[in-house]
Amino acid sequence: MINRLPNWFLQEIPQHAALERMRFVSEYNLNTVCQKARCPNLGWCFKNNTLTFLILGDICTRSCRFCAISKSRGKVLALDKEEPHRIAHIVRLLGLKYVIITSVTRDDLSDRGAGQFAKTLEAIYSLDRDIGAEILIPDFSGDVNSLKMILDTRPSVIAHNLDTVKRIHKYLKPQASYQLSLDLLKRIKKYKKDIITKSSLMLGLGETDEDLKETMQDLRYSGCDILTLGQYLPPSQNHYPIREFISIDRFKSYEQMGYSLGFKAVLSGPLVRSSYKAEEVYNRIKTYA
């Protein structure tokens, strides 16, 4: 069992500005994935006014073996119809120019939560259409109408995470489908060719270099533009155990591999997560598009 984190995982204690923003979000009864998923970059992101809002509540209808988000386990879940407006209000108060929205998976809803994504984006764009919006979406169980509802709102970036390589995907995400996720990314490009797409993989789950290359190739074939690679950290002893810590040099080599396969941007490192430095990466692609 691996119990000790390498030195590069040491993080600064959250500063006053970060703590104030965390309190602010809680006062408005909103969630961030930074807090709910126990992200190691929480202090850095809140200090830099980078928030990833978690919509549709904080309880998921799926049971992925690596995730810290609470599971529904058959409970009847509510839908907060005022949530989009509260998010827009905070966006205005904090002066956010780039907003990241993700969600729990809500297989219990007829549209799988796509309508809440759309209403949230519409509320944000009503403030200023030039605000950048990146959304990290679930697979919507392959429902095309749900996806089209999202596309009609014209987000800047649509992300959908494979999370892990093909060989162990089904074990770690028993209610998801590797191919369905790839098909979702393909459909985004089919319907809106100019929208930037993104996916993320966690490393240290027992994958090999050959596994990783195969999955990276599958993502490129599906039209994925941005790839993020980060170190998996189990939220507790009850979650899937870490198999190894990936060295910084290996992360750099995987970044080079990604660029050689044709990704427009690759962010690769131990602390990298899907939304880490998202605005910076988006602006880099937008500048050279």
Written overview of the protein:
The protein has 11 helices and 10 strands. It has an 8-stranded mixed beta sheet with strand order 1-2-5-6-7-8-9-10, with helices on both faces. The chain has a two-stranded parallel sheet with strand order 3-4. It is of the alpha/beta class and 289 residues long. Helices cover 39% and strands 15% of the residues. The model has no long low-confidence stretch (mean pLDDT 90). Helix 6 links the parallel strand 6 and strand 7 (157-159). The chain has a single domain, classed as Aldolase class I (TIM Barrel). It has helices at 16-27, 33-36, 42-47, 83-94, 114-125, 144-151, 166-172, 178-191, 209-221, 248-260, 278-288, and strands spanning 31-32, 52-55, 59-60, 70-71, 98-103, 132-136, 157-159, 196-203, 226-231, 265-268. The protein is globular and about 45 Å long.
